[in-house]
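Thread: Newbie trying to understand structure tokens

Hi all, I'm a second-year student working on a class project, and my supervisor (Dr. K.) asked me to get a predicted structure for one chain before our next meeting. I've only ever worked with sequences, so writing a 3D structure as a token string is new to me. If someone could post the tokens and maybe explain what I'm looking at, I'd be very grateful. Here's the chain:
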Amino acid sequence: MESMMRISRVGISTWVYFWRPLTEVLKDIVEATYPYVEIWADKTHLDPRISPDLSAVKDLLNSLHLKVHSLHAPFSGVNIASLDEEERKNSLEHIKKSMESCSEIEGEIVIIHPFSTETSGDDQSYLRAKNKTEDSLCTLATFAEKLGIKLAVENMTGKRRVGSDISELIELVTKINNPCLGLCLDTGHSFVGKEDVDLSKNVLECGRNLFALHIQDTDGKKDRHWLPGQGIINWAQFMKDLVSIDYQGVLTLEISGSPEFAERNVDHILPKAMESIKNVLKLRESIGRRRS
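---
Reply by user tm_fold:
Sure, no problem. This is what the structure looks like when written as tokens:
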């Protein structure tokens, strides 16, 4: 029963309103009754490359009683799998600064992308990129340990990029074997550009290494970032699988609030997203009733 209660923790990414000032977005998130937040840090909000005022953000978070579950490190212009060593080292520095930001605002987890671009290179180049990813994750996991936070590497869309296969990420995390390094499972990414997707298998394979979730729905064709229930994902099975692995983290909605998605009710996206995740949580409760 305790694990069932823990899965009731919900949050949302500030990416929902990435074009608006972070202070405004945080206030709106609290007004919509979200207890947890993931702060976006790519090109906006807490991207270390734009020198955000961390002290002011921390004060606001405290005054709002809003808990930072995670911070999404920058990925635009960042590639920890780069075969160009200077580019890779610069990428690591950007992520380390985000990790320091996360620690300063008392966040728990930093989310990173393993590789940002699709590759059509030969197998040897792909293997070299994978090895560079492993080296980078080792370095970052050690840094996370020093800061007292966790690092979660996210599964990617597509077929031919390091990290698009969740099993590959599990292999890397297991090999590195640092308790501060785990996985972020993006439910939509699991489907986009893939064939014969088994999300249930993905969740179960992650097991205790699953530190964070990006909850979004999709049609499987594009990275939609729709509300749960608007796409093809079987949320009842998903919640059952989370209970099976005793997931202890937050259900973080990563929903698009971009004006281009106006047909998705952008003006009321925060309360609608909360309503959608409550519907998902009802599925969890029905699982608990069947077990008792």
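A couple of things are worth pointing out once you decode it. Confidence is low (pLDDT under 50) at residues 1-5. The chain has nine helices and eight strands. Feel free to ask follow-ups in this thread.
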